[in-house]
Design a protein that fits this description.
162 residues; alpha+beta; Glutaredoxin; four-stranded mixed β-sheet; 4 helices; elongated
Length: 162
């Protein structure tokens, strides 16, 4: 003859089993999701993009409008914003071409680059130069200014592009 106690313990055992299976299912789903997201994400590197090797080439590219990102592999600030800049270069709302210029390669061919609006000189990495019709129309020296310029392009509030 069955007792009340054994019925309750079987019911509790089922509940505990379902609870454990539920938690295990959620964990498996999360792990699978992370693996799929990681597999689908693109790991971009500097080498994936067109480079300019001389400051003299900044204003001589074929496009009417483009940007040049000046960086260094050893620059801590460049490393902090690398993913954001490379993702922008890969796909941005303005479909603007972005060239990269490695400071280690371009160093020996440098000449001063000036912002036509503020007169500020590009003195280091990271910096972003905007070129329209062969003329430098804007320069963003420093990681904050670079990020601000990229965000403005994506927001449609960057005044230096048509």
């Amino acid at each position: 003859m069955a007792t009340k106690g054994s019925y309750k313990s079987k019911k509790n055992d089922k509940f505990l089993t379902y609870l454990i299976i539920g938690f295990a299912s959620v964990i498996v789903a999360l792990v699978v999701g992370l693996v799929v997201v990681d597999a689908l994400s693109i790991d971009l590197t500097y080498e994936d993009f067109d480079h300019i090797n001389s400051f003299y080439q900044i204003t001589t590219q074929d496009e009417d409008e483009y940007m040049v990102y000046y960086y260094s592999e050893t620059c801590g600030y460049c490393q902090q914003i690398k993913d954001r800049v490379l993702n922008f270069a890969y796909d941005n709302d303005a479909n603007i071409k972005v060239y990269l210029m490695d400071a280690q390669v371009a160093y020996s061919t440098s000449f001063p680059i000036y912002d036509p609006t503020s007169g500020a000189q590009m003195t280091g990495t990271p910096s972003l130069v905007t070129v329209v019709d062969g003329q430098i129309v804007h320069m963003a020296p420093g990681y904050v200014e670079v990020l601000d310029a990229l965000e403005a392009v994506d927001d449609g509030t960057y005044n230096y592009l048509d």
